[in-house]
Amino acid sequence: MERTYTDRSEHMTLGRRIAGHFSKYSWYHPMQDNEPINAAWAYFEHFILPRRHFLSGIKAKPGHNSSETRLYSVWATREVDLAELGVGIGIYFFTLRCLAIVFLLAGLINIPNLMYYNSDLYNHDEEGGVPYVLRRSAICTDHHWAACPSCSLEQWDYFPRTFDRYAETSSGLRFIKVNDCNFGYFLGLFNWISLVFVALALYVVCFYIIKRREVKYDEAQQTTTDYSVAVENP
């Protein structure tokens, strides 16, 4: 017996809604019969993609249609619900959240560095020509030409960014472009603090928090292993 599903538009995937919209045009679907496309998308969403029971929130079996089921929400699904798809999946998304928080805090620690890069104490020249996304970075536009009798062209032609940092006059005098930006103790301090913070945070997350969360996800699932009894022959 063929199963039929009556899914509302807001409960469908974006791809299914787009396909349903364009299927009425002959250039997209020359057969002009939308039923095969709708049936294929319904099969994909109800048999391939994981779904949950609307009332209880418990993971539904593939193809279940005796009660209303919905796809897992991108924003409202909890990590413990993802663990129903497997402990590894729940741990994966939990780890992503932990890493996002750790690196966000590391970025906040480096805000004083960004302020210093944007000040006259670091770069006395305006950042003209520097792309907006690279401003407040360590790019230095404050420089001057200095004599370097021991320098040679072979030392400066191996990388494109150094091509314009070496010059030689017709009389044989050699010059190199020297940065005048001030790198001091202030920058290294906050870099060191953020490095230590990330190292300690990753250690705590990997060896303590994730292990406890793994046990929590495993205990939330009832499997035959939880009721198994091992009998050893004495």
**Biggest β-sheet description:** 3 strands, antiparallel
What is the string of SSEs from the N terminus onward? HHEEHHHEEEH
Q: What's the helix count?
A: 6
| Oligomeric state as shown | single chain
Radius of gyration: 31 Å
Structure class: mainly alpha
Major beta sheet, strand line-up: 3-5-4
Mean pLDDT: 82
Low-confidence stretches: none
Helical content stands at 40-55%
What share of the residues does DSSP label as strand, in percent? 5-15%
Quote the distance from N terminus to C terminus.
Answer: 54 Å
- How many strand units? 5
Shape field:
elongated
Write a compact overview of the structure shown.
40% of the residues lie in helices and 9% in strands. It is mainly alpha-helical.
Key features?
single chain, 234 residues, mainly alpha, two-stranded antiparallel ribbon
Give your account of this protein's structure.
The chain has 234 residues and is mainly alpha-helical. It has helices spanning 14-22, 34-48, 79-82, 87-109, 111-117, 185-220, and strands spanning 51-53, 69-71, 143-147, 166-168, 174-179. The strands form two sheets. The chain has a three-stranded antiparallel beta sheet, with no helix packed on it. A hairpin with a 5-residue loop joins strand 4 (166-168) and strand 5. Helix 4 runs antiparallel to helix 6. The protein is elongated and about 90 Å long. The mean pLDDT is 82.
Present the secondary structure layout.
Blueprint: H1 14-22, H2 34-48, E1 51-53, E2 69-71, H3 79-82, H4 87-109, H5 111-117, E3 143-147, E4 166-168, E5 174-179, H6 185-220
Antiparallel strand pairs: 1-2, 3-5, 4-5
Helix pairs in contact: 4-6
